[in-house]
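Course exercise 7: structure representation. Students receive a sequence record and must write out the corresponding structure in token form. The form below is the worked example handed out in class, using Siderophore-interacting protein (265 residues). Read each field label carefully; the graders check that inputs and outputs are placed in the correct fields and that the protein name is recorded exactly as given.

STUDENT ID: A-19
EXERCISE PROTEIN: Siderophore-interacting protein
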Amino acid sequence: MRRVTLTGDGLAGFTPVAPDQQVKLFFARDGGVPEVPDPPADLDDVSGWYQRYLAMPDDRRPWLRTYSIRRHRPEERQVDVDFVLHGDGGGHDGPAARWAAAARPGDVIGLYGPSVSHLRTPGRHDWKLFAGDETALPAIGAWLESLGPDDHAVVVAEVAGPEEEQRFQSRASVTVTWWHRGGVPAGRSTALTDAVRALEFPDGEPFAWVAGEASAVREVRRHLVGERGIDRRAVAFSGYWRVDRSHDDASTAEELADHEEAAAV
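STUDENT ANSWER:
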């Protein structure tokens, strides 16, 4: 994981929308300054803006990737973004990771956002469950830092090994369980699902937040709803990446169904 601090006058108007907020990042194909269409005037123009982006010539259209904001410092016009740098062919060796690995002060990327990564807002609940792989750790860390002293949270995290475990700060009562996949490539392990299945739930009604590799997220959600009996409206989920598929590949039928389910009230 490499943390990169982004700064600039364009962050003066950055308005947080949720602990697990995301932004679109744009990376120039030639390593210079990315050319990004003017931002949409309002929410009604978002689809038009995206079509303008897609209409750019291939050699000029920057790569677009979605990342969580780890921390926002408005007084300094700064945001921190954590990049997973695995180059194991598991979906982490794309243009964003390559840029982050070589980033130096003065390098320029484009940023659009933020937006909420989850489409379910917590209702009444007694405790929160956070489950995810490395890609979910920035959002989980931001979530935990937003909680108050009366909150209780349980974190289940899958990482390659103990060297990738992180320390989280929170005013809440937090229990963290780390599961290591060892030599199994990212996206090929059942560690996250196994960890959630093995978890002894605290008493009371939970709100669950699940993110990471799309198929693993799907399995965890099915377990929580189908086997644990959690109300599907109390499970926020997001597939941050897909094994063997890039951000630029079209969504599968199963992924489209996931999107519809996530957006359902």
